[in-house]
Write a structure and sequence with these properties.
Blueprint: H1 8-17, H2 28-64, H3 68-84, H4 86-104, H5 108-143, H6 148-163, H7 165-180, H8 184-207, H9 217-239, H10 258-290, H11 294-330, H12 334-361, H13 363-370, H14 374-407, H15 411-435, H16 439-462
Length: 472
């Protein structure tokens, strides 16, 4: 099922749209060429998103020095942020399809307008959601099952994150725009700048080193906020430079177009619902682990942070590939789009299999970096190993979804994604952990089983090829 060779239905689609670009055109040389292009577009995005996880890992590493409570607090607040920021996926999915297709078709004015509209939408929506977050965070921490001391720390951390949520969402637009115009490497270096700010400021503000006050978990939040602001500022400057394939004039030229911004929402809304479903599912997962105390939540949070290194590599590859697919579809090269999508699936599954093996072998050493207490170390090793087993499956799911998002066809992955979240992951985890009384270990095994089923379903859907003929 991971083969690049088209199915009979895809062969029919390719011939119907352009007989010269049918299955006969998918030669080994084309596969090699497209795979190199996928890597060219994907590697910088992979590096950028992997660096983003350094934000989380840096916080987790230093906060773990203060005990399991701050780690649990960031984990619980993270579940709320997943819910609050689902519009980021709405705008993001719509903007990827529009920016990459406009640029692929050679319409620079329309591309610039789409980029400006993306930034305006993200910042405005993020700021509004941040205000909502300030109001509901204390209540949500209780709802998610946080113990009182953990809930207080989560609120302290969350205040700063909510205030700068507009910058956080806009920072993702930097990467979207640069990928859409074929400059993913620039996005990678901008991500490096933001990460350096966060990594340097984290210990200074958490522990009060030098002239800085000791701020604990609030210091970690401020350091992350400074990283987001840095990415936004540097990214806007990079897009306005003369050596950019598209020079964005932020204070002149074409203006953001409201109908096109609405179109972004319309295209991305199914992806946003899918993202919201995933965020709610993640919140329920945190709630399930909270049934077993603060240590269980802290270990789950630690494992998720480490797993996110792999996941964000896949996300980066997928977003780079999604932009490439959009460009090929805009240029009416359906055969190139098909090979791009399936090459990305293969690369994601293979690379994450390697990461999984490494994590499984070195799980004791990795967990010990965060927790040395045997009460946390021993179960933490099992947590991390099970998360690692799921990585290749997550890779297949994310890359399959990005084939649809690159085409701007987001309803099918929304339906399948919600089915995976609520028809597979949560029920199987609950039965394995709570009903059968296997606890957190059972829930982790159930999670892997559900991912296996979900990956098979989504991959089968992508190989039908209907996304190749979708227009935006």
């Amino acid at each position: 099922m991971l083969s690049i060779r088209p199915t009979s239905r895809v062969i029919e689609i390719l011939h119907r749209n352009n007989p010269e670009n049918g299955v006969e055109s998918i030669t080994s040389s084309l596969k090699k060429k497209i795979t190199k292009e996928v890597i060219r577009m994907g590697l910088p995005s992979m590096a950028s998103f992997m660096l983003m996880t350094v934000y989380d890992l840096t916080d987790t590493f230093w906060l773990a020095k203060l005990g399991p409570e701050p780690v649990a607090a960031v984990t619980v607040f993270g579940a709320l942020i997943w819910i609050l920021t689902f519009p980021n996926q709405v705008i993001g999915a719509g903007s990827v399809a529009i920016i990459s297709r406009r640029f692929g078709a050679g319409d620079l004015a329309m591309t610039e307008r789409a980029i400006k509209g993306t930034f305006v939408s993200k910042f405005a929506v993020g700021t509004g959601l941040g205000l909502i977050g300030l109001l509901i965070t204390p209540w949500m921490m209780v709802l998610l099952g946080a113990e009182p001391d953990v809930a207080k720390l989560a609120v302290d951390y969350g205040i700063i994150q909510c205030i700068v949520l507009g910058f956080q969402l806009a920072s993702f637009s930097v990467y979207t725009a640069l990928r859409g115009i074929g400059r993913p490497a620039a996005g990678m270096w901008i991500s490096v700048a933001g990460t350096i700010v966060n990594v340097v400021m984290d210990p200074l503000l958490i522990f009060g080193i030098g002239p800085f006050p000791e701020m604990g978990i609030v210091g970690a939040s401020i350091a992350s906020a400074l990283g987001f602001i840095t990415v936004c500022a540097v990214g806007m400057i990079a897009l306005s430079r003369k050596d950019s394939p598209l020079q964005v004039n932020w204070f002149g030229g074409v203006k953001p177009n409201v109908p096109e911004m609405v179109k972004m929402f319309r295209i991305g809304f199914p992806a946003g619902l899918n993202s919201l479903s995933f965020a709610l599912m993640m919140s329920v997962r945190v709630k399930l682990f909270a049934l077993y105390g603060t240590n269980a939540v802290a270990l789950y949070g630690m494992s998720m942070k480490i797993m996110r290194v792999g996941v964000m590599v896949i996300v980066g590859l997928g977003l780079g590939t999604g932009a490439l697919i959009g460009q090929y579809l805009g240029a009416k090269k359906l055969n190139h789009a098909w090979v791009s999508a399936m090459s990305a699936v293969q690369l994601a599954a293979g690379s994450m299999l390697v990461v999984a093996v490494v994590l499984i072998i070195f799980a004791p050493q990795v967990v010990k970096v965060f927790f040395s207490d045997p009460e946390l170390l021993i179960p933490g090793i099992f947590y991390l190993k099970m998360m690692a087993i799921g990585l290749p499956l997550v890779g297949v799911i994310i890359q399959a979804e990005n084939a649809y998002s690159g085409a701007g066809m987001n309803v099918p992955p929304m339906i399948i994604g919600m089915t995976i979240d609520w028809g597979m992951i949560i029920p199987i985890m609950y039965v394995a952990g709570v009903t059968l009384n296997y606890g957190p270990d059972g829930m982790l095994v159930g999670w892997v089983i559900a991912l296996t089923l979900g990956a098979l379903v989504l991959l089968a859907a992508v190989r039908r090829g209907s996304w190749l003929e979708h227009n935006v």
